[in-house]
Amino acid sequence: MNDTVSFGYRDVDASEKAGMVRGVFSNVASSYDLMNDAMSGGAHRLWKDQFVRRVKPQPGEAILDMAGGTGDIAFRMHARGANVTVSDINPEMLAVGMERASKKGLTGLAWSEQNAEALTFADRSFDAYTIAFGIRNVTHIQQALEEAHRVLKFGGRFFCLEFSATLWPGFSDVYDAYSHKVVPKLGKLLAKDEDSYRYLIESIRRFPDMPKFEGMIRKAGFVSTKVEPILGGLVAIHSGWKA
Known about the structure:
Mean pLDDT: 88
Radius of gyration: 17 Å
Helix content: 40-55%
Strand order of the largest sheet: 5-4-3-6-7-9-8
Order of helices and strands: EEHHHEHEHEEHEHHHHEE
């Protein structure tokens, strides 16, 4: 029996998903930040600020920012003095991030092409592991969570920012209509790519809900797990510690 996983609303062979996701992000890399602003009305910037405040990066800490692509989270943590390694499975996304860092005059960031399910870093390498809007694109999410646990030092912290399902009555219906009908059209208009943005919206719908994902984080070995919903759970900050 083949191992199948979701790719948007489709079920595909697990061996094919990573390549398909890589194709999506190769297509949207150059317009990714523009589209984030268009899709969220700029709100993603506030969510990321809040996320980094929760992480509390400290000067000299070693932090792995997985699926860090264009550098949005890494730049914020770097500004607080952390030693950040930006990792992504997609070289095009990393290239955009490196170019942005160069334009900002930022030095000291490390950039590494990595698969979240099979990191090349040694055990207990990092003080914190962050992943923002990336884990839903991983083929085997549980495996990625276990890798996050492996590369963290004892006392290290895990933080994940990801879309979920809002529990606010009425708002859920409005957002559902907006995301399915408007976002792909924005993708076509701004990024010349309707299909990739349709996948990104569908991938949100197939992602585990907040309680289920928190359970997966605990299963990976993390303790003191917590979920902080934003906009009723439209977005959520998940966290846990390696004891």
